[in-house]
Request: fold
Amino acid sequence: MIKFGILATVLGLSHLLVGASLAQETNAPPARPAKLIDIAAIDPVTKISLPSIIAPSVTADLTMLVGGVLKDLPVQEGQSIAKGALIAQLDTVTLQNAVDQA
Reply:
């Protein structure tokens, strides 16, 4: 029991000493006042007209392995697409009829 009392006393004193040293370290210099600058409002819309031609940097010509009627075209002109994405889909009715007749 005596050892516990001595240990508690030592820990309590060390806590007070550490707390006192931290209180001394936080004496920071006073904050300096900030400078304020007034900013005048400007016209947010500036219209500039320049003659130009807009063209894509990369183009691709696409062909299907077989001919047919275009059933679906889920992309728009100028739209970016990911690798493996569906670009166009052909109607398979005429192809299935040809397979059935073979």
The chain has a mean pLDDT of 77. The radius of gyration is 39 Å. The helical segments are 2-25, 93-101. The first helix runs from residue 2 to 25.
